[in-house]
Design a protein that fits this description.
Length: about 325
């Protein structure tokens, strides 16, 4: 694949000024210094200002003002494992799970509705808590020797007492991208999505692969379109269960589409006007846009409204 333009050294260009993606903008100080200090952590747990995020089966509750509900620490269940999310000013904030709690189940319509309305900082705090607790639920046993592990570093890792291995929260990088050709964006849809919805193509990075290479591979695999000149736009944590979405735009060599039916139901080229209409929820728009909290929405907005893309001038 040709080297990406924009950095002057063949790498991704620096982030463009785009709308803040969902699940970003958290206000907590993650307080790494407390994770290594048992006495300081104990003091944070005992602090009368400390609060516990209220979750039911990994879903949050909102108060009358649409904010996350934080409970006093006496609400921590007996025998629960605590994770220090961080400090809100001087106030410690925690999340908790019982050792035998199952991993997160399917996302519910109620959760999706909540995510569309929740404040940015609250969504970021919820995303961190959900991903971290779900990781604990999925990784109770040591991948090295199979023994039971225990949380350490204030809930940001797990330690194996048998072989001494240390395990840390997993993050799976995913590229999500638009191929651009002649002022149009390539979007696709999966059959499980709501009727009429189209979005950016996406796929997991593989071992030994750069972001640019993953973008080119995924677009060619899913839609049969070859691209180069990959440009980075923005990133987003995606807590279902724990991905880092890396949004890019690439220049397509041509506009002929060959769909991989195992991945997509359909793929089409859309003009900026069509994308703008979809983002504005125009009833006459040719497709439905992804939800506002998804980085695909941020990516489409940047491409349609800001003119950001592979065909634009590189960012200095």
């Amino acid at each position: 694949m040709a080297a990406a333009a924009g950095s002057g050294e063949g790498g991704l260009c620096r982030p463009c000024q785009v709308k803040q993606p969902g699940f970003t903008g958290g206000t907590l100080d993650r307080a790494d210094r407390l994770r290594h200090d048992a006495d300081a952590l104990a003091a944070a747990i005992a602090d009368p200002r400390a609060r516990l995020l209220k979750l039911t089966a990994f879903e949050p509750e909102l108060d009358g003002e649409g904010r996350l509900v934080w409970l006093p620490m006496d609400a921590v269940p007996q025998g629960a494992e605590l994770a220090l999310l961080g400090l809100e000013g001087e106030e410690p904030r925690f999340a908790a799970r019982l050792p035998d709690d199952p991993a997160a189940g399917p996302r519910t319509p109620e959760l999706f509705a909540m995510l569309a309305a929740i404040r940015a900082e609250d969504a970021a705090h919820y995303a961190a808590a959900r991903s971290l607790l779900d990781w604990h639920a999925r990784h109770r046993f040591c991948a090295n020797c199979g023994s039971m592990t225990q949380p350490f570093r204030a809930g940001w890792g797990r330690h194996c007492g048998q072989c001494g291995a240390e395990h840390f929260g997993r993050v799976d990088p995913v590229v999500i991208m638009i191929a651009e050709h002649d002022g149009r964006a390539l979007l696709g849809r999966q059959p499980s999505w709501p009727a009429g919805r189209y979005s950016a193509l996406a796929g997991f990075l593989e071992v030994g692969e750069s972001i640019e290479e993953a973008v080119a591979r995924e677009i060619e695999e899913e839609a049969g379109v070859r691209v180069d000149n990959v440009r980075y736009i923005a990133s987003q944590p995606w807590p279902f269960p724990s991905s880092l979405m890396i949004a890019c735009v690439a220049q397509a060599e041509g506009d002929a589409i060959t769909i991989d039916a195992h991945e997509l139901e359909d793929a089409r080229w859309f003009t900026r006007d069509a994308v703008r209409a979809a983002l504005a929820k125009d009833p006459d728009a040719p497709f439905g846009a992804p939800p506002s909290y998804a980085i695909a929405h941020t990516l489409l907005s940047a491409w349609a409204e800001e003119g950001v893309g592979a065909e634009s001038e590189p960012v200095a």
